[in-house]
Specification:
The protein is α/β, with parallel strands linked by helices. It is built from twelve helices and eight strands. The relative contact order is 0.13.
């Protein structure tokens, strides 16, 4: 399995779509994506039906990580929140589960969505130690550790950039610049740092809708789309249920459904069926 270090060497910008379960990860792989992102919010909402407020556990994240990495065999970047109280253990458990990288944030626990108000931060020195602990815990030197900076909308842009510089010195492989508010702010980050900068292109947040090409033009090296597919899926599910409730049949929406044959091709069903039969 390729590492994120290799992907960055091979691509000017690495685009990482969010997948919310193993099946959606397979779809992303079939479309041609080279890596995947597993969002903490996606796990909380999709698997447990709860908000992303630090309620899910490290074991919950490791379980989804294992399922997705085994199914897709793609490099998986995993949201490790604040480290679940022990960032070294988080690295060891998620690396064992099949992740090829994580990001850790400088919020206090329990954390909040990076684009929501009311975030509280740990001090930069504590985050520096969090990064060092994570780096020391990895057994694979290619395991990618990203430091997420949540300071922009709490202490201002200058504080966020200063924190990013300290996290770079601490050994982070990249900086996750959360909730920046315009393209020029991303440019200032990339011009000020030696390591890659990751942008979070979430919808309905503080960052304007920017394309991969716009990010690339200012030197951003990685872009995640954490919940785009999940939000589309949830809206589609709602629409389907409304049709079933109103019409009592799925006939009017058959052309919008994945066919049985399409699903079987995605899962490599027939080949696996033959393997089970031979046993």
């Amino acid at each position: 399995m390729r590492s994120f270090h290799n992907l960055l060497k091979e691509n000017k910008i690495v685009v990482i779509p969010g997948a919310f379960n193993a099946a959606s990860g397979l779809v992303a792989k079939n479309v041609g994506f080279q890596s995947l992102y597993l969002s903490g919010s996606g796990i909380a909402t999709g698997s447990f039906g709860i908000p992303d407020l630090g309620i899910t556990t490290l074991d919950d994240v490791a379980c989804e990580t294992s399922r997705m990495s085994k199914a897709t065999q793609l490099p998986l970047l995993v949201d490790a929140d604040t480290g679940f109280g022990d960032e070294a253990q988080a690295v060891r458990k998620l690396e064992t589960a099949g992740a090829m990288g994580i990001h850790l944030e400088d919020q206090v626990f329990p954390k909040r969505c990076g684009h929501r108000p009311g975030k509280d931060l740990i001090n930069a020195e504590e985050m520096v130690q969090r990064i060092r602990n994570a780096c020391d815990a990895r057994s694979n030197p290619d395991f990618f550790i990203i430091a997420r900076v949540d300071s922009r909308n709490v202490n201002g842009f200058d504080d966020a950039l200063e924190r990013a510089k300290q996290y770079q010195i601490a050994g982070a492989d990249a900086i996750f610049a959360e909730a920046l508010e315009n393209i020029d702010e991303y440019k200032k980050f990339t011009n000020s740092l030696r390591i890659p900068v990751l942008a979070n292109m979430t919808e309905f947040g503080r960052t304007p809708m920017l394309s991969v090409f716009e990010f690339e033009s200012v030197g951003v090296r990685m872009v995640i789309f954490p919940l785009t597919a999940f939000r589309c899926m949830m809206k589609s599910v709602e629409d389907v249920y409304k049709v079933l409730k109103k019409e009592g049949s799925q006939k009017s929406i058959l052309n919008k459904l994945q066919t049985r044959e399409e699903l079987y091709r995605l899962l490599n069903y027939y080949e696996k069926e033959q393997g089970i039969t031979k046993k």
